[in-house]
Amino acid sequence: MTQNGLVTATHGRHAVVESEDAARRLCHFRGKKNEVVVGDHVLWSNTEDAGIIEKVQERKNLFYRSDELRTKSFAANIDQIVVLVASDPDFSEEQIVRALISANSQNIPAFIALNKADLTAPFERALNKLKHYPPMGYEVLALTLMGTDSVNPEFTERLKNKISFIMGPSGAGKSTLINRLVPNAQAQTGEISKALQSGKHTTTATTLYWTDALRTSALIDSPGFQEFGLNHIEPSALAELMPDLKEFSTGCKFYNCTHLHEPGCVVRAQVDNGRISASRYKIYGQLFTQLSASRY
């Protein structure tokens, strides 16, 4: 007899599945290929040793990255992406752009959380660096996690009743944030590590944590995104996935304008007059060149 379940952690061919009674069990995927990711709704059956995942239910989205060698799936059925960066150390805008493009390709809403708001000068510099994002629809929320037991109420309100995928580079404060919002996160990670028999390797795995007793809000934690490949994105689709470029791209002289060198390009004109960020346009050009080269 099959039961409904939610995948809360994966490692290799193993997965931790949470049933409707909130119990978590080690499960294996039936067949040779493991097709499950954290956030998947599955049908599973019980055995003497462990559960068997019989079927993965239809997903509403899948957040993943890809390079020339492989595709790495992070999580499914996400309500929003939270890109967490800090005012110090300085962050890579290209990493943010790559993450937002991938989220947009799956129609997953996203916002940016800027930690270390208590560092006045670095925070102002970082905020200025991100000034182009709110007009595009990407909210930038300030956070201060050092020396306080609380988290910005506006930020926590944004997490309510949602499955949120938290991503960010090393040093941004992701672990601190999760431990604040999920006090028993370290204990849960230890339990998952034991269940998966993966020891320290669990730190490289994606994990779901509920932030409330009713299991209505959750954080999905994943390793840092030092390299976020976009090989699954066609070069011609890039501008459509960048709201600031998309706003003007239909006005170009040529319908298949790459926005790099063609005459009558409205996008380049908007870069020149400052309505499109020069740094984002530079990143667009680099990504277009990289993705085009990977097709040959």
Report on the architecture of this protein.
With 296 residues, this protein is of the alpha/beta class. It folds into three domains: 3-56, OB fold (Dihydrolipoamide Acetyltransferase, E2P) (Beta Barrel), CATH 2.40.50; 62-221, P-loop containing nucleotide triphosphate hydrolases (Rossmann fold, 3-Layer(aba) Sandwich), CATH 3.40.50.300; 235-294, Ribonucleotide Reductase Protein R1, domain 1 (Orthogonal Bundle). Helices cover 27% and strands 24% of the residues. The protein has helices at 93-105, 120-129, 153-159, 174-181, 185-196, 243-249, 266-272, 278-294, and strands at residues 3-11, 14-19, 24-29, 41-45, 51-56, 62-66, 71-76, 80-86, 110-115, 140-142, 163-167, 207-210, 218-221. The strands form three sheets. The protein has a six-stranded mixed sheet with strand order 10-9-8-11-13-12, sandwiched between helices. Strands 1-2-3-5-4 form a five-stranded mixed beta barrel. A two-stranded antiparallel ribbon has the order 6-7. The chain is globular. 34% of the residues are buried.
Number of strands: 13
Strand content: 15-25%
What form results from the Cα inertia axes?
globular
Instruction: Assign the CATH superfamily of the largest domain.
Output: P-loop containing nucleotide triphosphate hydrolases
Describe the largest sheet: 6 strands, mixed
Please report the first level of CATH classification, the CATH class of the largest domain.
Alpha Beta
If you consult CATH, what is the topology of the largest domain?
Answer: Rossmann fold
Write down the overall mean pLDDT: 90
Strand order of the largest sheet: 10-9-8-11-13-12
Percentage of residues assigned to helices: 25-40%
What is the quaternary state of this protein?
Answer: single chain
CATH architecture of the largest domain: 3-Layer(aba) Sandwich
Q: Give me the strand/helix succession.
A: EEEEEEEEHEHEHEHHEEHHH
Number of helical runs? 8
Please compute the radius of gyration using only Cα atoms: 21 Å
Regions with pLDDT < 50 over 5+ consecutive residues?
199-203
Give the tally of structural domains.
Answer: 3
Structural class: alpha/beta
Distance between the termini: 49 Å
